[in-house]
Amino acid sequence: MKACAILLAAGRASRMGAVKALLPLPLLSGGAPCSALEGLARCYRGAGVEDILLVSGFHAAEVEAAARGLGLAVVRNPRPEEGMFSSACAGLRAVPEDCAVCFVHPVDVPLVRSLTLAALLDAAASESQHGSSSVLIPTYEGKEGHPPLLPSVYREHILAHERQGGEGGLRSALAGLPRRYVPVADSFILEDMDCPEDYARLRTLAALREALWPAEAWNLLRLCRVPERGLRHACAVGAVAAALAQVLRESRAEREWAGTGPDPELARAGGLLHDVCKGLPEHEKAGGRFLAELGLPVAAALVADHRDLSVPDAAPLTERELVYLADKYCHGREFVPLELRFGQKLDLYAADPAACAAIRGRLGRARALEARLAREMGRPPADIARQALEALLKAKGGEPEAEPNSSRGDT
User: Does domain 214-394 bear CATH number 1.25.40?
Assistant: First the structure.
């Protein structure tokens, strides 16, 4: 099934005071900047969508030059003052005939992750297999976002609505057509930038585009149908990892060490996701691969080594090590010290000398990390873990908050 993408960049951007498509955002690996337009082009190509069409209008010369530099096809909306629907229609008229489905994506929604595009494409493939042609709308916690994925069979229907005056825009044109909502673990489908304040917020949010916020991680676990027992353990590990990160961060600040230390919310998200592929062989590595394939390499790094790892003395402690140790402290949602955790394994494999040697090796590495963390925090990490789990059990349900707004920098 061939998919295309229409990127809408024809607006005047009067409230922004700058060309939105060309605004720099930290969208490249490691947080390096690129334009919003380049970030979207990379996202679509990463999802396997190569036919990308940019619709220009106001600021056409600048936007078209940037688009051609990225290898994108370009069509100009002759009437950009008529609004976004006119741009969508200009793009639809230029879409190749062999395109089966088409994304319509405003360039001012630049942080959408490739996992969203993949979910929509998977849904479209399922629709095709069942002989259906629904308009596909991504949702996050029940809220509709961008981009919709439109079956090309409805192109003439949409263009006819434009010829009839276009009242109500694309939403009105799609009214009455078969529609399917596709839940995704991507809150960025809701984030647009209309003014400088929005742009400043999105520059901050973009830093976690290759990972997930805790609430997004929780949504991904639900979408993956992780059983309730697994969800409870995930919450426990997330709570402990976040608590360890917070104390380590505060300790670093008090000692005026370089750097800010690990991010508690990133550590929480890693803890939530650590067993996302539980049940598969080498589930920790399977989880890392799964998250990497979703376009989440930062999250993947937090998960892939949580069974066993060692940290060179010169290497800083990060969220990755805290997720690993947090998992070792949690038996379900109950605290367990390292000696008991590994002692249970030694008892289980008592008749297997090789297995026992491997278990003792893992215990030694866990103890070494625990000792180093105690030195850097000035407190026993086991005490922090125990307190975090006690607090979690007192909280109703023990689930992460639905909207971690305070950590996202929302206004």
Answer: no
Q: Is 96 helix (H, G, I), strand (E, B) or coil?
A: coil
CB 134 within 8 A of CB 127: yes
CB 17 within 8 A of CB 196: yes
Are the C-beta atoms of 132 and 123 separated by less than 8 Å? no
Both structure tokens of 294: 């979703």
Q: Domain 3-208 classified CATH 3.90.550.10? A: yes
CATH 3.90.550.10-classified regions of the chain:
3-208
What distance in Å separates the CA atoms of residue 151 and residue 153, rounded to the nearest whole number? 5
CB 364 within 8 A of CB 349: no
Predicted pLDDT of residue 61: 96
Evaluate if pTM is beyond 0.85: yes
In the predicted structure, residue 117 carries a pLDDT above the cut 70: yes
Scored b (16 or more CB within 10 A) or e, 317-331 reads bbbbbbbbbbbbbbe
- The DSSP-derived string for 192-238 is ---SHHHHHHHHHHGGGTTS--HHHHHHHHHHTT--HHHHHHHHHHH
